[in-house]
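Moderator note: this is an archived Q&A kept for reference. The question asked for a predicted structure of one protein chain; the sequence and the answer are reproduced below.
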Amino acid sequence: MRYPWNQISIGWVTILLLPATILLTPFLFFLDHFGYSLLDSGTIFSLTIIMGSSLFCSLLMYFGGRILHSIIVAVLITFFIDIQFELIEGAGLWAKYAWLCTALGVFAISWMLKENFFLITTTIFSVFFVVTLGQWFLSRPADDPHFKKPNPGTVGQYLPRIIHLVLDAHIGIEGIPQDTALGQEMKADLESFYQKNGFTVFGGAYSHFPMTLRSISNYLNFSANPDAATPQGDPYYDDDGSEPHSLLQNRYFELLSRQGYIINVWANALLIDYCSESAVVIENCEVHPPLRMDLLQDSDLFLVKKLRVVFSHFLNLGYTVPGIGFAYGHFREALSEKGFDLPPWNWSPPRPLMVLSSLKALDTLSEKIGTLPPGNVLFSHLIIPHAPFVTRSDCSLNPLLEQWEIEGGKYSLEQKNTSFSREERYLLYFQQMKCIYRKLDILFEQMRKHGIFDDSIIIIHGDHGSRIGRYDMRAKYLKHLSTRDLEDYFSTLFAVKHSNGKKNYSTIKQPIEDLLAKTVFPNIEITNKPKESKPFFYFRGKEGRQPRNFFW
């Protein structure tokens, strides 16, 4: 069969197959990798949309002439490369040039090779599609972790198990804003929760750092080093600029191992790799994916809203769609200055599936906790109650997608939140926090059911505050900052339940790395930093190298 423009002979099957396989292959891989069922109505509807889009591309290719045919194929293949391999996004500031060069290269090759190129690429992408579909049907659930018992007669046999949970972006109890009824209720609820479960709570706990990478690496090494988690000269990370960042040094794990503990890690794959470069043996390293769709699939959201979340995450995997959104934003802003208003770009949401992944991990932890023997440490870094705020207090998903908020927008050149938006975001943040404590109640109930709650050590803490502040935590905004802003960023949770059942509440300002040393290793001098005369913090960015005293 020949094109209407009668220049290249090629089968109509090729015209239909090439766009379909290019678009379907990465989408099927995306759904499978993040746990969305093939038999779900949302999947079927999604595939229908993809097939409709590919058919539209096929019609354009058939009737549009040779140039348009080559342009469409070049754009589709560049999109595939961008989505599947993240090579273009990895180019950073040069991403748009990398995208353009890739597309031009594919276009040039297709133009030179003519029908041979289309036959070869159709064959290749058809194979990709079949293999991806086969993996979906043949994939099996991952094996459950099997916790190891300490050898008989060793010291580990007599050590209490330790459950150590890092709740990312959990504000400290004394840092919870008290200017709203829900804030007052939240503080009272947390005090009651930890009191009834026998915890010692350090309400005045704080982090020196407003960002996860610096906070966690310093916390686990009992230090306050501002050069941690920087691209050059970083003592704690093997940092090549990609995620997750491999943690090179972890004195906390090393000290636990010396005492005879067996180390187990459950962590999100997004930020920190606790296992690959560990100096001690990690018995189980369960890395849950940064995004999970099964909770989204099982939610009561309308199908259209589920599809919007699915497609927005898929399309934002690479640079192509975010690049379009970025360009559209500049165009919209330019027209707005001339009095023309265009609708906002709604295909670049924050990362709600990351939150759902951590909630799913907490559910799994509750199911498996009864098999954790004495002498084991279970360390779990959960990206909750971190933004975006997607759950209601009962852990159902908020059906208003426009409320799936990050911790701050941009309301002026300097301001991150207005008083109104800050209060609004805290209300959503507290709803998500209530969901977490419903799940912690279930976890503790399971531990009691298996008779392991009373004799276990449980450590729960944050890594920084909620970050729902009025200004970004950078030195240039210092003159605008208040005590409230500092608490939003640096006040964080620290609570510990000892096996001896002692409970207490302290409002004294103490850094979390010191609290960890005191509560887990009270008889060992291990700090890696000078004694603090006054509490201090570091700003974000390059200017965050000099400590600043808190003015709270």
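Archived answer notes: The longest strand covers residues 262-268.
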